[in-house]
Amino acid sequence: MEKTILTGIKPTGQIHVGNYVGAIKPALELAKVPEYEAAYFIADYHGLTKIHDAKEFRQLSYGIAATWLALGLDPEKVIFYRQSDVPEIFELNWILGCFSSKGLMNRAHAYKAIVDQNKSQERDVDYGVNMGLFNYPILMTADILMFKTDVVPVGKDQIQHVEIARDIAESFNKNYGETFVLPEYKIQEDTAVLPGLDGRKMSKSYNNTIPLFVEEKKLQKLINKIKTDSLPPEASKDPDASVLFMIYKEFATPLEVEKMKEQFVSGIGWGDVKRELFHVMNRYLEQPREKYNELMAAPEKLDEILKVGAETARSISSQFLKEIKQKIGIQ
Ligand code: TRP
């Protein structure tokens, strides 16, 4: 039988090269595996825990949708939808909340990190915490369980959330009998954690990212900003210690990578490496960027595609929610 593979991205920032290499690219590859039925969605209501400006929120949500499509997600093969278009998820969210201990939520790392920060700054422990943020893992559990998900491809920071989903599913199943599939997470061990402009992990919170679809000139500018050491051009360099090389590897052909390695060893100036990096990145991103810009200029097209996906999703979720409600004694 086919396995369901599901993942979501929340619209809280512009997609950057690190997101692409670490999450989107591997997810798109998994969607092509014949034994998987993929469901990929925009976790917009998760984004609402953070983004409280309507215009920005709308743009960010469309941005995620356009990114997936521009990079080759085929909505004929992948169930591709916006979380907020599937109301059954939110009904399930409430039901599952009644099977989630508050203590479990207290231990969820995103919430705990804020509490710890508040403590260290001697503020009220719950300063800046809205209930959406606190309940975040329950909604994510509803996302996952609603579609009987077997496999959730995520980054390491999301492992705990998938474990929480298993815990909640188990406590429901224990009470009403086998209902929910226990999901497993899938970490792409072989995907790179890309460094950002300053050499630390590329991350919005470090403000060191290269947005995936910046225009050419800006891309060149950002690449020029990438930190290098002060070795002279003729000095032999270690490719594996170079941020430029790590990014280069993701966008160049295997042959180009080999050549670049040799040039590092025999001596190449950083300016030349940067020029080459721009060349391969731009070559790779040119077409998706164009498609992205086209889609962003025609949001009604995105709405149309997402609407079809939501219909497919709802044909599954409404049926399953009925069963669940029968089990708990509502219908
Ligand atoms: N919490 C995930 C993140 O921040 C996004 C997300 C929401 C998600 N619901 C999900 C991921 C369900 C996988 C499955 O990256």
The SSE order reads EHEHHEHHHHEHEHHHHH
Which architecture name of the largest domain does CATH use? Answer: 3-Layer(aba) Sandwich
Mean pLDDT: 96
The CATH superfamily of the largest domain is HUPs
How much of the sequence lies in strands comes to 5-15%
Shape field: globular
Structural class of the helix and strand makeup? mainly alpha
What's the alpha carbon Rg, rounded to whole Å? 22 Å
- Helix fraction, binned, reads 55-70%
Bound molecules: tryptophan
Low-confidence stretches: none
Biggest β-sheet: strands ordered side by side in the sheet: 1-2-3
Number of domains: 2
Number of strands: 5
Number of helices: 13
Q: At the first level of CATH, what is the class of the largest domain? A: Alpha Beta
Largest β-sheet summary:
3 strands, parallel
Terminal Cα span: 30 Å
Under CATH, the topology of the largest domain is which? Rossmann fold
